[in-house]
Amino acid sequence: MIPDKYFTSTRLILLVTFFVFSFSKTNAQDGKAVFLAKCASCHSMGNDGATGPNLQGVVERWGGDVNLVNKMGW
Fold first, then answer.
1. How many domains does the chain have?
2. Which of 58, 30, 53, 31 is nearest to 43 (CA)?
3. Domain of 72?
4. Residue 28 lies inside a defined structural domain of this protein
5. What's the mean pLDDT when you consider all of the chain?
6. pLDDT the model gives residue 33
7. What is the pLDDT of residues 30-47, one digit of tens each?
8. What whole-number distance in Å separates Cα of residue 8 and Cα of residue 28?
9. Which of 12, 27, 52, 68 has a beta carbon 3.0–4.6 Å from 43's, enabling a disulfide?
């Protein structure tokens, strides 16, 4: 079955939009600002008595990607 033009166009627009916004430096800066405003008060990078889980060692604990964590600017 061949997808119709509308579906193909929509998919292309979404794909381009994703790539434009995913590689934007502004989004990384905005993400850091959101983290500092909404998350940093509870989640820390050390043992400072924050109420949320400590983020130090998060890569090892969750088996995540080091490059992703580095992009976050921690």
1. 1
2. 53
3. 39-74
4. no
5. 73
6. 86
7. 878 888 888 888 887 777
8. 29
9. 52
User: 49: which 2 tokens?
Assistant: 């008595």
Section 59-73 average pLDDT: 68
pTM of the model: 0.42
6 falls in which pLDDT band (50, 70, 90)?
Answer: low
Identify residue 24 by its one-letter amino acid code: S
What distances in angstroms separate CA 55 from CA 8, 25, 61, one per listed residue? 41, 23, 10
Rounded distance between C-alpha atoms, residue 41 and residue 35, angstroms: 9
Nearest to 71 by CA among 10, 24, 39: 24
Distances (CA, A) of 23 to 12, 45, 69, 71: 17, 25, 15, 11
Return the amino acid letter for 64.
G
Amino acid in position 11:
R
